[in-house]
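Might you be able to review the protein record set out just below?
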Amino acid sequence: MLRDLDYGTNPLEVLPLYQNGQVGAVQDADIASKKYAEAVKQLANDWQLHVLTETQDSIRAAVLSSRISVLASLLALFALGLAMIYLRRSAAFRAERNLAIQQRDMSERLVQLNKLAALGQIAAGVGHEINQPLAAISAYTSNAVTFLDRGQPEEARANLTRVIGLASRIGTITAELLGFARKATGTMTSVSLNKVIEGALLLLRDRIATLGAVVHQPKDDALVQAEAVRLEQVLVNLMANALDAGQNGVEINLSIKLEGGFVELTVADNGPGLSTETRVSLFQPFSTTKRDGLGLGLVISRDIMADFGGDLVAATPEQGAAFIMRMRPAP
């Protein structure tokens, strides 16, 4: 075409862009150093179509695309990392929750086991407490029948009145025993310490009488925030320990006072006290000086007091042993 000069007599000159080396083919390795990239399309009749484009625009677009791709990859990795952390934490949370449930169930079972062990120790005494009024009821009813046969209704009425009183006494003892054995509800209410003390004394009365022990009760009462059944379990455990440690003639002193915003019920005895070695492991599970003991009584008792928002601590009296049940006063 050039040789035919189809477009006039003036010769066709090479553009300065080509002369200055500013144009490179698209497929060239050093195209990034050129100002223009050239794409060539072969047409009919030996014509060629040359298309130029600025390389900087393409490079910027490629760089931007690369950056976007890298950013998208980083975001994907970050999201994947977050997902893995979430899954791990979720698994750890589920494991911790399951472990907490298992620990709570085990703790409740241990509390019930300790309670049943205490019931086994006081069962004989409670049986004796029931047998006495039952024997008296038998005698009074037999005499009442005799009085009726003799035409002495007033004497018979007096005997039957005594029978009613004895039956009520048996009902009180069995109700206290059943209440002590009942599983805790976990609901805290306002509890009278004197009523808790009376319940513990009723369960331990035969052992106290058998050992010739003397229990000094507090003159004053106090209302605390607790659960009566579990609070009584702690008190029975502490008093039973005092009876086990002491010899005949043991004295147990129960006292109530307000200290540092807490109500304190102290259980003190005049027994041999606690040795230094015993104090070190006093609240450790399965540590006991009793031949048939489980070593759980004091551990469970402290856990119960902690559930009430209080504590159980061992005092250091000059003689014997003393434990302080610290509780929050009832609102």
